[in-house]
Specification:
4 strands, single chain, 183 residues, four-stranded antiparallel sheet
Length: 183
């Protein structure tokens, strides 16, 4: 009987933790390949359709969490995915976050999306890149979901003369620190 991908990944995790003596990485790689191909053989448009339907159900909660959906990509291939692009409209309070998570505790995908957004937002506030600012988030809804934080160059940086760049970066860093204190 062919193992399912989550089972294979759990066995690999156990091996990494040292809890599975005699583990063979070659066998695990073969199992991952077989499980992935087996899953793809059973994959149909229904899977993407269900994911799209689930995302449509999640959109009102995402909006209540302070995000606007600006674009949706659909990737077809070995790892099919739906990738909504989100723009942070407003920061909500910890109480509002907790209430949303409590409200969606029985809706696994929606709860996972919200939890991921809240964790990403917390990580975003700790990331400071010189000459770049946070612009948006991409959610990759697939076999292995991922949250991507997007940072773009500051417009002012492109207008600064090279001899004034160091002073400009220092000013931007000070502004970012002030903005974080305001959040």
């Amino acid at each position: 009987m062919t193992k399912r991908l989550p089972e294979v990944l759990e066995e690999m995790r156990q091996a990494l933790l040292g809890r599975k003596p005699g583990h063979s990485w070659a066998t695990s790689a073969s199992d991952v390949y077989s499980a992935t191909l087996g899953g793809l053989k059973n994959f149909s448009g229904d899977t993407l359709g269900k994911t799209a339907q689930n995302f449509n159900e999640a959109m009102p909660y995402i909006e209540r969490a302070g995000y606007d959906v600006t674009e949706i990509e659909v990737g077809l291939g070995l790892d099919p995915k739906i990738v909504p692009h989100l723009h942070l409209r407003e920061l909500i309070s910890d109480e509002e976050k907790a209430a949303l998570l409590e409200e969606t505790k029985d809706k696994k995908l929606i709860n996972t999306i919200l939890s991921s957004l809240f964790r990403a937002s917390a990580a975003r506030s700790k990331l400071n890149f010189k000459r770049f600012h946070f612009t948006s988030i991409e959610l990759e809804l697939s076999i292995l979901p991922t949250v991507v934080l997007k940072f773009s160059p500051n417009e002012e940086t492109t207008k600064v003369k090279p001899e004034d760049l160091l002073e400009h970066i220092e000013n931007q860093t000070e502004k970012q620190a002030e903005n974080q204190k305001g959040e």
